[in-house]
Every structure is written in structure tokens, then in C-alpha cells.
Amino acid sequence: MTETANLNHAKGGGSRPLSLILWGVLIAVLAAGAYLAGANLARRWAPPLLAHPIEATATGPRATPAAGEQLADAKTLELGVPIDGELEEATIDRWQFQGVAGQSVTIEMWLHPGSGSSVDAELAVELIGPDGAPLSREAGSVFLPPYLSFTALSATDSYVVQVSPTSGAPGRYSMLLTLSDPRAPRATGAPSAPRSPTLTPDNTAIAASAAMFQWPTVRRAISGWTFHDPRNPGHIGLDIAAAMWDPIYAAAGGVVTFADWGGGYGNLVIVEHPGGWTTYYAHFTEITVKVGQNVHQGELLGGAGTTGYSTGPHLHFEIRYQGRPVDPHIYLP
Asked: Based on the domain organization, do 138 and 240 belong to the same domain?
């Protein structure tokens, strides 16, 4: 009996150290698991540590490159001489000219629907200073091309004119640079001399017979914008009053070179005349002539309408000489 009791006492006393060891192992395992879980969360949520800071780079495309880069690939833009260029999609043309401090700048653009220009494309022209900073920007389309005017250049230096597409591939375009003379120095108290524009090809210098053109409509009234209207300088024709289906006639005899959809022009007819002259008739409801057809002065071209960029029935009428738009008012009787 005593031996049995002593034996039981020995067995019971030996179980306590074993239980303590098991509890210690369990706590160690739980602590290790908590540590590993915490470390994983720390790696997931903590911001990364960088050995070296990342510096900003200038490898991305820039709309306006540095002045040196602009001049490196720029072509010469002659004063008062229309130039031709061609723009593909995502390409940029750069032209440079020498400006004088105080001069005002006018950049006139026009396109050639039916003769190398896309009727639906759009483009922009930008004037850039000697330091590479943009000074002025105008956007437009084949129907209402950009017309940029900037007053008083800040320095006598080289300036860049940048032409770029904003939608599609414009194709062929033309551009004319005009500069004013800067203000002449004057004595204190003396009246300032008016600015006189630099001589450029003038409409009145183009030899045209007074009887060459006639009004293309029976209504001889202007219903909207005029040529380079101050409210819309990009407008390069006359908006002549017309009602729907009013007959539209050829202003002079010639050959039809375009008779189709013209983008912002709507339904458009272009007639080529002898001596480098061309007339444009826009917004037809219906066209009654075909490309290659010879027409006489006063012959029916179609019915007036309001297709294209138009807010009501009228005729948009242009006269061009050697591709350049001129003021129709000068040549109509």
C-alpha cells in the first residue's frame, strides 16, 4: 500500500514539468506565427525604401521643343511670299523668320480641298519666341483655316512658326507671313507716327478684268461673314444671301474641278478659270454639274442650301488667284 501510494505520487509529480514544456512550445509557435504575419503585413503596406532617388527625365514628347531644336529643322519663311507645305498625321512643320522688336505679325493660312487637302482634317498654327516659349496659337479647319495675329514682338531675333495637325492628316496647306513696321522713334512730345504695313502681294495688284466675274446669285446681299471678317478672321469668302434651292450660277466660264462633299464647305463646287483664277461655291442642297464639265458664265451649278458648317441657307463664295484667297468684293461688279 505504501509503495503503491509512493509510486502514484512519483507519477503525478512527474507530469507537471512535461505540461510546462508543452505550454512553452505552444507559446513559442504562436509568437513565431505572429511575428511572421506582422512582417508580411509590414512588407505589404510599408512604402518601399530606395537606395537612390529617381530623377525626373525629359525623354517624353514635348509639344514645344527647345529653341535650338526648333531652329535646327526649321525652313525659311519669306515675308509676303505664300509658301506651300504638306502635313501628314502626327507630323510637325516648323518655319522661321527674322522679326524686329515692335513689329506686329499676321499669319494667314488656307487649304486646298480637291487639290491635295483633306476636307475633314484640322490643324493649328503657333508662333514661338526666341526663347522657345509659345506666344500665340490658333486652330482651324479646311473651311475655317487658322488666322494668327500677334501685336508687338518683344525682341529683334529669330521666331518660329509651327504648323501641326490636330485631327487627321491635313495634307497640302499654304501660309503667308505679313509683318508691320515697328514704331519709329520720336522726340519727346512729338506725335507718334502711324504704323505702315510691310508691302505684300495686294489684291489690287492682281490684274483682273472688271467684267471677268458676275454675282453667282440673284440676290446681291451679304448675309453673314465677309472676307477676313473682324468677327471671324479665318473666313476667306463672302456669305451671300440665298433661300433654299435658289439657283447658284458660275461667276465666270471655266472647268469644274470638284463637285462633291467638302467637309465644312458642305456640298462644294470648284470651278477653274483661265489665268490662274478659281471660284468656290459652298453649302449646296444639290449639285447639278460634274467634274470635268465645261461651264459658261451664268450656267447653273446647283441649288443653294445649308450643308456643312452652316446655320441657315446661304452661299459661301470664294475667289482665289494662283491658289490664294482674295476678297471677292473687289472683283464683283
From this structure: no
